[in-house]
Structures are given as structure tokens and as C-alpha cells.
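Notes to self after the call with IL:
- keep both proteins in one doc
- input above output, always
- annotate only the second one for now

Protein 1:
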Amino acid sequence: MAAHDRRAAMDAERLDRQLLIDGWDQSALDDAKIALAADSDLMASIFIMSAAALGINFITALSPGLDERLIRAARSLNPRLTLVSLRGLYTHPALDDIFSGASLIVDLSRTGLTNKLILNMGFRENIPVVRGFCFRENSSEGFGVFTYVRGREWEEVSRVVSPRNLPGHSIDDGVFSMIAAGIVLEEAKNVLMSQKSSPELITLQRAELSKAKYTPDVGVIGAGALGNFVGLGLALSGIRDITFMDPEEVEATNLNRQVLFYDAVGSSKAQTLALRLNELFGARAGARVEVFGRETDISRHDVIFDCVDNFETRIVLSEKCRDEGKMLISGGTSAGAGQAVVFLPKESPQTPAELLGLYELVEARETEEDQTRGESCVYRPDPSVIMPNQIIAGLMVDSLRVHACGGKPQNVFYDSNSAKKF
């Protein structure tokens, strides 16, 4: 087999799950040229890693620096990635030439000067711009994402220009950066595939957090796509004591969304994820290569994260956390939506399984299987892509941060097809 054919076969296997999505156009991503301007190495690096996993191959990044841990993952996830990294800030129109010929500009900067220069270039050259940013103001914090295409009103555009005109000291929020980068990538995908982008400013905010009242010991059940990003979010939040439980091994078709498994096909998911977080982020993570069941011991953990992909295990998790009085943060995703649901034993009227109607779903599925038993059936994997997993995992970790600071986390439902998303 020729080198070109082998590469095509490997790409098809790696991207298999997203190619199953109705209307998916991978060719629109293959040759797209993304221009990226940032003044935060963290959000820029998370975006590059996720874009590489999605199958975007050409990125030119202008930023003060990049996180080499995440860039290594990006290059390993996508061997076709051509990343041109330039150190600096977008502060003068002379730099427009760097982004000449771009299919799309991603603006992750937080200075008004850069925002205005990029919007002007987008208007002048008719290049779409997707802007993502985190903010902290008036005792609140959050993130925003905005997609500009020629024709949007300038009065509306002015809402997303940073109030500070020149670069200055800023604080990265790893969890909000992860969520915002996922939404930016969703919008970028829509623009490149000529699908509908959001006509509104996408934003989510809450009260600014105080100092954490406790440091939890965390159990993460499921080390797949959600587990990868939950682990990354926990590590970026400074949470070190984490145990991952998963019986499965990494497969090539996982790599379009399980970003920390870039060189681990055939290895244990739980062990690889724990090792990677320990090596890269100084975590104290452990692994249990086993199936979660009713007899599984979770007594040592303060909080359980539900990152599994089947309803039956999620029901057992709900019941066990209810019976043992454990906080449960349950996440679920599809190819275009997801939810982060929090169970607090003394406060929540329903477990996640009850709230989401999982008992009824399992019963209906079992009835349908009984009716069709004996007929020929071919297994077809579920379509899956990186963005909902990245977004929902970030929301799950933020729920823990809110609770650890004495606040009450809220359930959040995400729909990529809605204008507001949340």
C-alpha cells in the first residue's frame, strides 16, 4: 500500500466516529487554513489540540507562546497537522499578511486593539471570524463566543471588543478556556462546512468563586472522551487526588475525541489517563482497570464523576451515590448535545437517573430488543465528536469548583443546534 493510501486509511479509522454524523463534510476541514491570534497560551493550545483531533490540518498561530504538552498531543493525534507558530501579539495591520489566505480567523485575544484589527481584516477580506474569550468583571466570571461574518451589524460586534485596548496582565482559567475553545471549534466547524453558525453571542457566566473550602478526593468512572477532559479540567484546576476506573483499552477510533491517548492504542484507558496526568500536570492520579458495579467500593471518594457511556451503569451510579451519600456529577453527550447534572444527597430531589428518565429509556429499549430478537442485526457505533465531550466535561468540573467554594452548582443542558447553546 502506498504511503498516501496508508495515511488515508489511518485517517479514516481515527475519524470514523465523526464521519458517521449526518451531513458531516470532512473534506471541508481537510484543506481549511485556520489563522489563530491569542494572548493566552492555554486557550490557544487547547483549541489547537482539539482542532487537530477534529482533523483540521493547517493552523497558523500568533501568540506569546504555546503549551508544549498540549501541542505534543496535537501533533501526535494528527500527523498531518501543519502548525506554524509565531511568537508575538497581533498589534499592527502590517501583521495581516501573516494570515493572508486564511479560510477562517480564530480570535482568542483579550485586547481591544487586536479584536478591532481582526474584525477589520475579516470585513475587508470577507473572512469569517470566531472570537472566544473568558472574562471576570463585576463579581462574575464566565466566557463568551461570537461568530462574525460580513453583514453582521457593527453595533452588535462592538459588544465583543475587549474594554482594555492594550496587552496587560491576565489570568487564565483552564476550565472556562476548555469550554470556550470547544464552542469556538463547534462554530468554526459550522462555518467551514457552510452550516448555520450561532446568530447570537454565546455566553455563560456565574458568580466569581471564592477560595475553595475543601480539596476533594475524586473518583472518575469512565476514562473515555468525557473522562479525558474531566481529568484535564481537574488537573488544570489544581485537583490532584483522582482515581480513574475503566475496564477498556484504547482503540484507534477513540482518538478523534480522547485526546490524551495519542500514542496509547491497545493500552488501558484508566492507567494511561492516570499516568499522563501525573507526568504532564503533576497529579496524584491512580487507576482501577475494572467494571463499575453495585459492589464497587467508593468510600474513599468525596465526589464521583459519571463519565460512562451506557444507561445501565449510570443507573447503578445514581443509586449507589444516593445510598452512600456521595456527591455525583453526571455527564452525557451525543454528537451534538449533552448535559451536566449534579446530585447532592441532602439537597437534590432526584438522582441523575431519575431526572433524565433513564429507567424508562432502559425499559423501552429492552422491550424493543425483545420484539426484534431473532432478526439479523449489525452493530453500528454511535456517531461521536470531540466538541460536546470537551464542553460538557468542562461544565462538570466547574460544578465541582462551585461546590468546593460553598456555592450551589446548577444543572446545565447544551444543544449545539440552538442559538444560545445553553
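Protein 2 (the one to annotate):
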Amino acid sequence: MNPLEAYNSALTRRQFFRKSGTGLGMAAMASLVGEKGFAAAQPMGNMSIPQFAPKAKRAIYISPIGAPSQLDTFDYKPELEKRFKEDLKDYLAKEGERLTGMTSKQAAFPLAPSRFKFSQHGKSGTWISEALPWHGKMADDICVIKSMHTDAINHEPANQLVCTGSMVNGKASMGSWLSYGLGSMNQDLPSFVVLHATHSSPYSNVQAISSRLWGSGYLPGKYAGVDLRSKGDPVLFLEDSAGVPREMRRSMLDGLSKLNMKSYEAVGDPEIVTRMQQYEMAYRMQSSVPELTDLSGEQEHTYAMYGEDSKTRGTFANSAIMARRLLERGVRFVQIFHRGWDQHGNLPRDLASQCKDIDQGCYGLIQDLKQRGMLEDTLVVFGGEFGRTVYSQGKLTETNYGRDHHPRCFSIWMAGGGIKGGQVYGETDEMSYNITENPVHIRDLHATILHSLGIDHERLNFKFQGLDQRLTGVEPAKVITDLFA
């Protein structure tokens, strides 16, 4: 026999107790007592957390993929009207601006003031663009952060940084971290669900996104986001095959579980246990998902609050209602992706269309959560991957312009989950170019989100490749405590 194989197959005393205590024994116990009983017998989640009193139990992250222009939504710069078409070439050189390949060859960089009018809203007097009239109605419910900044200047790495805390592939997503740390509140649905909302503009640039943004990376596969489709069956193979009764499906799964247990006993691969758990989740979802996606019981006044698009499957407003229904059923984290926000040209036309898609849906979601008493323990975040330039990409006219990528500053908003509404945090200079007050990096946002859910971002770790991995990485990150009421 090969000496190396003999060594590897030998079972030491330490290996025996480890496998019995945390491996096969735990899996066997789960199969004996049932998943609900097994979950109830443990501290919540995997890290004995929440580590302190949480302000939120669950969260929704709305991702406008492509990066909305802060200059045309929340960062009001009225003085720029006087500087229309001013060439910023010398200014950019002085600032050492990183330019993308889309504008680096431009002969001039004409300053482009926003074509949208702004007005103050709510008791807070928050300045909001006319492109977002329904946001104006909820100005006192949201906190606008104008001083976000990031390390990335292109979409894919920037979106990975927002969703996983790193521009490097293979990292665990934010929703996966929350699922891993906090566990599930419902055994019939995943703890992390992803929705893809359609957009209505036929002209917008639509950025491709990949499952890396909701993947589990080095965490066990069961913590990956589950993608509910907006067309066809919400989940593939939701119904049993023709001629396969429910009892036979149950018997097949039981037999498969026994085979998988033997494989696990032989090799000890934890992904085998994950596979078994996911088979069981899929079986339960065959009953829970049809009930979840049946919106026939929703009241007409609810549809009116979200807008006329809310009855059309796949729209943003419909996805927002679905997100609320998921939270009601115990889902921890819902991420809604809405693509088409990459306005390198024709911004006034295309941005207005994108804003119309999400504006009333966001308003309806916040008001719906408030009415149901859920907003106080539900964190809602709306934010893209970076900002847009003050100068025009391509030709600038009185009515039309485009904007390139700008990582130095951009705006997002947060609501619920202990966040103090009706405030504006951070400030930028006169051209929305640099941050002048209270900078917030993506890592700080992640730390703040985890804090809202009762997690110390420095203590939520997972050992991988010899390192204690975490969402906020190894660089400094701080909780923005001023955001909380």
C-alpha cells in the first residue's frame, strides 16, 4: 500500500472526535430531529450573534447597476449653471484625475450642469431632483449620504467591491455573510434571495452582472443567494416531473440522502452536507414559493402605493412588493438588481426613464414597511457602485450630455433599521468632484450595515486559506454611528 495513502486514511483520536462532534454526527442528528428542531437547539447563526442588540433583523439592498448620477439626483450644485461648458482639462490635470478609456482622449472636458430642477422636501429640507418626485415625499424617512467613495473606476470591480467587499473574485457576498452570521428565520425559504427587476428604457446601457455578486465564495454553498426569476417559473423545476407523485419524490430524496451520508462518511467533504440541505430546501420550496409569488391577496391600496407597474411581474415595483413578502416570511436579506443606469450619453432622457422605474416603487416599499410596523427593524439601502463626472462625456448641448465614471464621490440613501431619517450626511465640493466632509468608504458602509444587524464587522470571520476572512477585509473600516437615531 502507498505509505502516503495509508497515512491519510489513518483515523487519529483527534480526527475521530472532530468528525463525530462537528461532521457526520451533526449531520445525523439533523436528520433525526428535523431541521427546525436542529436549528432551534443552537445559538442563532454560526458566530453566536447578534453580538449586541441589533437595530434591524433583516435588510433589503437595492442595487441600481450602472451608477446613477449624483449630480442629477441628490447632490445639488446650483452654481454650476454659471459655468456651463467651462473646460475642466487643466483642473483635471491638477487633481490627478483617473480617466477611463472612454474620455481620456477627449480634447476638452466641458462642465455639464444638471438639466434637472431641484427643490427642498420634508421638514429636513433635503434637496432632491425633480426626476425623483416620490422620493421627495419620503424625504423625512431616508438618510441621504452624499460622501460615498470607492476604489474602483469600472463597473465589474466596483460592483464586486459593493457586493462582496473586494474587487478580487471568489469572495463571499454581503448577503451570504449575513446568512452565515445570523442564520435563517424560516426553514421553508432561503435566507438570502435575489430579484432582478426589468427596466423600461430601450436606450440605456445595460451592464452585465454575474452570480459572483450574490455568491457564497469560500463560505458553504448553502449561504449563496437564490435567484428568483421574473419570467417563467420563479425557480427552475419547481414542479415535480409528470408521473412522479409527491410520495415518490420524498422517497427518492430519502434514498439520495442515505447515499450522500455514506459519501460524507468516506471523505468528510462539508459540501456534501450542504448539498443534502439544499435538496431538502428545494423540496420545501416547491410548496412555499407558489404561495410567496401569488399576489392575488394583496390589497388594491397596496398596489396604488407602489404604482401602476406593481401588478406587472418583474417590474421594480412588483419586485419591491415581493421583497416585502419575502421579509414577512423570514428571509434575512433581499437584494434587488435594477440595471440600465450607465448614462454615458443622452443622460437627461435615459436617467429620467430609469428614475421613473424605481421612484414610486421605493416610496411604496418604505411606506408599506412603515404601515406594517416593519421599517423600524428592516434596513433598506439604495446605492450604485460609483458616481458620475461633472464634465460631459462627448458632445455637450443645452439639453443633452453624458457623464463618465467617477469614484471620488457619489450619493446613496438608507432607511429603517435604526437609521435617522430626514438627514443628509457628508458633503462634496462645488463641483461634486471631491468630498469635503465626512467621507464614507464602501467598507464603512458594510461595517454600518453589519452594525445595524447586531454584528461587529471585525468579529464576523471565516477561516480560509489560512486567513480570517471578513466582509470588510483587512483595511480600516468604521461604523458611521452618526447615521443612527
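Annotation: The chain has one domain: 43-483. DSSP finds 14 helices and 17 strands in the chain.
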